[in-house]
Amino acid sequence: MDEPKPIAFRGGALDDLRAFPMEARQEAGFQLDQLQRGREPADWKPMPSVGAGVQEIRIRDAVGAFRVIYVAKFIEAIYVLHCFQKRSRKTAQVDLDLACGRYRDLTKERGQ
Asked: pTM, whole model, 2 decimals?
């Protein structure tokens, strides 16, 4: 079996994930584990407005909707850009801007 791909959290994404309610946090962990093993998460969608190859995991529990925005196209790691609770139908611009900034910083660091 291949080694799972490492996960690297950008900015405060890990702290944000840890602030999720237990059920949502466990589901996010399971879905990230699926990614690490080369599988697709159960519920996801592409986020081209954030950057090339960026996707979001969609999680629902009794408390509400939660999102994990990540990019898995790079060979060395899966980068989690942002984790947040979604409070309206449309993703808040502040959440998109934060993920975009972290993606931009990541690509600069990688020299792309």
From this structure: 0.94
Supply the DSSP string of 9-30, one letter for each residue.
E-TTHHHHHHTS-HHHHHHHHH
Q: Over the stretch 11-60, which tens digit does the pLDDT of each residue have?
A: 999 999 999 999 999 999 999 999 999 999 999 999 999 999 999 999 99
DSSP summary character for residue 42: S
- Greatest alpha-carbon span in the chain: 42
What does the alpha-carbon distance between residue 110 and residue 16 come to, in Å, rounded to a whole number?
Answer: 24
Among 75, 54, 79, 80, residue whose Cα is nearest residue 2: 75
pLDDT of residue 3: 86
> Residue 101, CB half-sphere, CA atoms under 13 Å: how many?
10
DSSP state of 65: E
Residue appearing with tokens 């949502």: 24
All residues at 6 or more sequence positions from 49 whose CB lies less than 8 Å from its CB, including other chains = 96, 100
